[in-house]
Amino acid sequence: DDDAFNRLASDIARQVDSIKSNANQIKSLALSIGTERDSSDRRQQLHSLTHTTRALCQAAADQLRDGLAPMCVGLAGGARRAQKDRLLDKLAKAAGDFQEAQRLVQSREREQVGQQKRAASGVEAAFNSDAQPPPPSGAEDNSNPFTLENAQMQATADLQDDLQAAEERESQLRQLEQDIVGINEMFKDLAQMVHEQGDMVDSIEDHVGQAVMQVDEGNKNLKQAVTYQKSARRKKIIIALVVIVALAILAVIIYFAVPKPN
């Protein structure tokens, strides 16, 4: 049992360390959103990392609740409960760091999605108002109808690409928000675990308190029994002395009452 407990506790500790490391990496990647370092590959890496870290958090919480906690039942599991509580505290802090990183990603992504949508809407409004889109850079003849047509086609393709990129980022943002909701639910599970742990400790303290009271009451009863026993012994001794004195008096009376032969 001790080996199984230690193996599971070590596994949870490694997961907690991975969560902390991933949270720091997520924060670093989040700061690149909207900068020159921003790219589709980095965003994919970012969202894949957040999804993986969320799964790590949930797995560690499940192992704490379903695997480690049942091994800490009873008065003999005090040392195990202390180790489990330390792991629970570390997991809560690591999950808090991860949630903070998630919210940073959410804020940066939401800002970028808004900018892309506004830019795409501006280009689309220009088309709807029959305004001539600017030709691509490097165009030589603005009066050539073929050049203008190519410019319109290029602008339309760019608009579609921008809209598609905005939709992809919005989809990733929705997934991120779902992950944040999942972490919030996990925090509720952790809070419930802490509450149940507190109830269990209170129950143990109540049982210990009752045992102490029963021991005190037993000591009082024992002392009272000893007192009764001493009192009974004293009464027996007194009665015995009274009987002996009475027999002695009776013997003296008989001795003097019986006539002596001449």
TrEMBL record:
Residues 106-145 are annotated as: Disordered. GO terms for cellular component: SNARE complex; synaptic vesicle. GO terms for molecular function: SNAP receptor activity; SNARE binding. The keyword Transcription does not apply. Residues 163-225 form the T-SNARE coiled-coil homology domain. Residues 156-193 form a coiled coil. It comes from the Eukaryota. Keywords: Coiled coil, Membrane, Transmembrane, Transmembrane helix. One of its GO terms (biological process) is vesicle fusion. The chain crosses the membrane at residues 237-258. InterPro entries: SNARE (IPR010989), Syntaxin (IPR045242), Syntaxin_N (IPR006011), T_SNARE_dom (IPR000727). The keyword Zinc does not apply. Belongs to the syntaxin family. PANTHER family: LD23667P, SYNTAXIN. This is t-SNARE coiled-coil homology domain-containing protein. It comes from Macrostomum lignano.
